[in-house]
Amino acid sequence: MKRYIQSLLLLIVLSSCSNELNFENKKFNKKSTLLCKQNCTEIKVTIPIAKSNGRVADSINKKIFSIVKELVYLDEKPLTKEDYEALVSSFIQTFETTKEAFPDSTFGWEANIEGTIKYQSENLINIEIDHYTFTGGAHGYEGLQSLLFDPKTGKTIPIDKLFQNLVELKKMVEKKFRVKYQIPQKGSINQTGYLFEDETFQLPKNIIFTNDGLLFHYNQYEAAAYVEGPKTLFIPYASLKNYLILK
């Protein structure tokens, strides 16, 4: 009986270890084979891959892949193989097909995607995806996406599960935003040239966890014109104790 209990405990420990969520950074790079003198077409993807045998890792990996795919997959046909090698190859193939159709075009394409684990605890995993793509035009598209995962399920955490008292939180963040960017406390949030929809302040789509507090990040166009660049606001955890549920 004693040996049976010991064997059972060992099996539980081994099972727990096999399902432990770890990440491995992987790189997927590819260049166009077409001749070029400068600004040659290239795609670079560096991304953390969740490693375990469970559905938690699968859920996280599928979500991250869907974000990267949305950024770099430009073909009209569905992607037949859902993996990063196929994804980077499709970017290059789409460029080369476009180049054949428009041989006089002189610019190359570029994609640079980098995923980083910014914060990890027993309650959440925060993965930031920084991205830059250029496929022609006046300038490229640059920004970041912050993904918040529940480490127990692998699902993304919605904002109402992250914070409580959302109305009061938004008021507090808006007040600090106005102070930082020298917007009068009274009057429209857009009175100095910002572009909030319906002239109403909104929390950003991307919130980044750090060891000391939260970084509220607005990409270009989300709060201001492209030339103004991204807008950020850091708030320490001490100021968020009445609002933050998970940390």
Automatic annotation (TrEMBL):
- Can you tell which superkingdom this protein's organism belongs to? Bacteria
In this protein, which residues make up the domain named DUF3298?
A: 166-237
Transmembrane parts of this sequence: none
Q: What is this protein called?
A: DUF3298/DUF4163 domain-containing protein
The record's Gene3D superfamilies line, in alphabetical order, gives: Fervidobacterium nodosum Rt17-B1 like, Heat-shock cognate protein, ATPase
Occurrences of domain Deacetylase PdaC (ranges)? 37-141
Database matches in InterPro entries: DUF3298 (IPR021729), PdaC (IPR025303), PdaC/RsiV-like_sf (IPR037126)
